[in-house]
Amino acid sequence: MEYTKEFKERDELLQQLEVRGLAIPDRAEALNFLTRVGYFRSGAYRYVFRRLLPADTIDARLHQYRSDDYIPGASIEHVMKLEAFDFKLARICQEGLLEFEVRLRAAIAHTLASRNVAAHASKEYLDTQSCDKPVGEHTKFDAWTKTWREAVSSGAEDEDFIKHHLLKYPEQDVPIWAVTEVLSFGNLPFLYELMQTPDARSVARMFGFAHPSRFGAVLRMMVDFRNTCAHGSRLFNRAFKRPLSLREHDTAGELLAHLLEPGFTVTPKAHQRLYIYAAALAFMLRSHTSGTNWHLTFKTQIRKLDIKLQAPDGSELISPNVSMGFPANWSDLNLWKP
C-alpha cells in the first residue's frame, strides 16, 4: 500500500481537526501546543476523543478501531490538559525510579562486595550455571565481562574515581562498588541475574520480594518503565510490553494482595498498565529500610486527572481505572496511604 499522507502546516492541521469535529476555542493557544509537542505526538492524546468505528468496519489487522472524527463535546483543550497531566506524571514516575535505581545499585554492590571486592569479575563469586549459559557463540559471563569493561572504559573518560583506580591499581579489577556506579540502569538486571541465589535473594528481600526470579522480572519491567519516562513517551493509556503477574507469597506483607484478585481493574491488559508498574515501584520503595514518600506524590498527581467528558454511550471516557489499570478504590488501599 502506497503512503499518501502529505506535509501540512500547523494552521492547516488545526483546520483539519476542526473539520473532523474537534473544537479549537483558542487558535493561538492550540497552535502553540502543536508547535511544542508536534501533531503526531498530540495524536496519542487525541486518539481517545475520536469516535469508535462500528463493529462491522473495524480492521483489527491494521489496528483501526476509531474514526478520524471526534465525539461531541471534544475540544483541543481536553487534549492539552491530558498531555500536561501525562507529562507531569512521567516526571514524577522518573523521580521514583531514580530513588529505586540508587538503592538497587547500593544493594547489589554491598551484597557482592561482601563476597569479594571484584566479585563481578569472577565466576567463583557468581552463579556458574547462569554464567555458562550460551549467548550466540559466547556465554553470558563473556557478554557480561564485555559489558562491565566497556562501562569502566567509558567511565574513565568522565569519572575521577575510575581514573584514580586505573592509575593507582593498574593490575587489579575495578571494585564492584565503582562498577555499579558506571553501569547503565538497563545493565543492572543483567548483573543481578548472574548472582548466586542466596545473594540475589538477599537483594530481593531488601525490596520486599521473596523470590529472586520474580524480582529479576520486575527489574526488567522497571527498566522499561524508566526508559518510557526518560524518553518522554506516553504513560496514559499505555500497555507496556512486559506483564506482571504476581502469585501468593511472592512478596512480603499484603500491600500488593489486591493485584491477585481477578478483575482488579476494568482496563484491558491489566497486568501491562501503568498502575501495576507504579504499584510495584511504590511497594519496593516502601519495603526498603529507607522508606519513601513517593507513593503520596504519585497519588496526588493521579487525582489531578479530571476531564469531564462522556463517551457517546454515556460511560466515563477518561479515568485512571478506565485508561490506566487502576482499581476503582485504589486511593483507599494501604499501599497508597501515608
Largest sheet: 2 strands, antiparallel
What's the β-strand tally?
A: 4
Count of helical regions: 14
Overall average pLDDT: 95
Helix content range:
40-55%
Which sequence of strands runs across the widest sheet? 1-2
Spatial shape: globular
Radius of gyration from the CA trace?
Answer: 24 Å
Termini gap: 55 Å
How big a fraction of the residues is strand?
under 5%
- Give the helices and strands as they follow along the chain: HHHEEHHEEHHHHHHHHH
What is the total domain count?
Answer: 2
Decide which structural class fits the backbone: mainly alpha
Note poorly predicted spans: none
Briefly, what is this?
With 338 residues, the chain is mainly alpha-helical. It folds into two domains: 10-74, no CATH class; 84-336, no CATH class.
Task: Looking at this protein, list some descriptive labels.
2 domains; 14 helices; 338 residues; mainly alpha; two-stranded antiparallel ribbon; globular; 49% helix
Tell me what the structure shows.
With 338 residues, the chain is mainly α. The protein has two domains: 10-74, no CATH class; 84-336, no CATH class. The protein contains 14 helices and four strands. It has helices at residues 10-19, 27-37, 39-46, 76-113, 128-131, 140-155, 160-168, 176-182, 188-192, 197-206, 212-230, 274-287, 294-302, 320-323, and strands at 50-52, 66-70, 134-135, 138-139. The strands form two sheets. It has a two-stranded antiparallel sheet with strand order 1-2. A two-stranded antiparallel sheet has the order 3-4. Helix 4 (76-113) crosses helix 11 (212-230). The longest helix has 38 residues, at 76-113. It starts with 9 loop residues before the first helix and ends in a 15-residue tail after the last helix. The mean pLDDT is 95.
